[in-house]
Design goal:
The chain is mostly helical. It is 77% helix and 0% strand. It is built from 13 helices and no strands. The longest helix is centred in the first third of the chain and has 34 residues.
Length: 260
């Protein structure tokens, strides 16, 4: 009994320590963004001007669109590929794993230099738009998305499910979209979490490519208006947290009522 009480106290202390570790920097951002330098008075001017800056509004739209397009591209590219390899060519699983994990070993600066030639063709066929960063962001999220999807696929008997569906007359497209994918939905959402977090936090590649995404604008604002930059940083963190919370709630609503 004594050990149980001690464990509860230790758990509470650890939770408070972790909460302080994450919340204190956010409170510092809020404090700095609302304080008038030199007087100590409070003002909401930095927060009010966030919506008045057209460049900032455009950067927010660009980052949100990049997050959505990256999630869609990752799901369309990786989910059918991994299911097909698991069902039809399991010997290629090591090759797919190697290709997906390869971006982890390449520094962002090397990626930017290497994709210069590729993006010359992308600009020629699609146009010079920040949304073309979707292609490189899909590659960057592959290592993390692969792990989430692989864990979900390993938790089900995909081969038996596919054979049962095929014996009832289902085509391969039906097997992938309507039989296997709903059973790995938790993994798909986990991969989407990671993709959204990565896109909303990525700075190096967008900056070196001279595109103004949300993170690039935050850094530029920090050189001219520090309180507004802090306000925007806090708003971006809260926006990402709310977005991830909504995705988590979507996952919970899809689970059976008896499963936690």
């Amino acid at each position: 009994m004594t050990g149980s009480v001690s464990w509860r106290v230790l758990r509470g202390v650890l939770l408070l320590a972790f909460a302080a570790f994450f919340v204190l920097p956010l409170l510092a951002l809020l404090d700095f963004s609302t304080k008038v330098p030199g007087t100590g008075e409070r003002t909401g001017e930095a927060w009010r001007t966030l919506l008045d800056d057209p460049a900032l509004t455009e950067a927010i739209k660009t980052s949100v669109l990049l997050a959505v397009l990256t999630v869609v591209g990752m799901v369309v590219l990786l989910v059918p590929t991994m299911i097909w390899v698991r069902l039809r060519v399991p010997r290629a699983s090591r090759l797919v794993e190697f290709l997906c994990l390869l971006p982890l070993t390449i520094p962002a600066l090397v990626i930017v230099v290497g994709m210069k030639g590729v993006y010359a063709w992308v600009d020629y066929f699609i146009g010079d738009s920040a949304l073309t960063l979707t292609f490189v962001y899909v590659v960057l999220v592959l290592p993390y998305a692969y792990r989430a999807l692989d864990a979900s696929l390993s938790s089900i008997d995909a081969v038996t499910l596919a054979e049962a569906a095929r014996s009832l007359g289902a085509g391969w497209l039906t097997v992938i979209v309507r039989v296997i994918t709903p059973n790995i939905w938790a993994g798909v959402l986990s991969a989407a979490f990671i993709a959204v977090a990565l896109v909303l936090g990525e700075y190096t590649i967008a900056s070196l490519q001279n595109y103004e995404t949300l993170q690039v604008v935050i850094v530029l604002l920090g050189k001219s208006d520090a309180p507004q930059s802090m306000a925007l940083s806090l708003a971006a963190i809260l926006f990402a947290a709310v977005l991830l919370l909504l995705l988590s709630l979507l996952d919970r609503r899809r689970r059976p009522s008896g499963k936690k």
